[in-house]
Amino acid sequence: MPENGQHYWLDTETKCLGHPEEALTTMSFGPKFLSKLCHLSPHEDVELAMTLKRSSSLFLHDISKPEAKLSKERYGSVRRVFVVCEEDQGISQDFQRWMIENDGVKEVKELRGSDHMPMFCMPKKLSDCLLEIAKN
């Protein structure tokens, strides 16, 4: 899938921090990649996001620990709803559908015309969608 290719990540930077036996892998989205995620969002929101962005863990270390496995009693007990962002260039529609089919999603909502960041490009529609999910 294109989500895994180096070309897909554009100017995203990854770094390994800490001791080699317990390295923490981090990533930081570059301006080109962030612009791809926010291609339908207002320019001023994208500019603000670029100034506020921080490196994030890929959580590889956390998920590699045996005790970190997700249990049915905890993660499995949460009713999952997936919001498909129709114009998402960060996660393809095919991959979004794959996640829905493979993670026990009980309900699917769609935000037509939304990029990866609906909180920027359509905050009212996102808010309405989340309120509807909460009511159910």
UniProtKB/TrEMBL annotation:
Keywords: Hydrolase. The keyword Hydrolase applies. InterPro entries: AB_hydrolase_fold, MES/HNL. It comes from the Eukaryota. GO terms for biological process: jasmonic acid metabolic process; salicylic acid metabolic process. GO terms for molecular function: methyl indole-3-acetate esterase activity; methyl jasmonate esterase activity; methyl salicylate esterase activity. This is AB hydrolase-1 domain-containing protein.
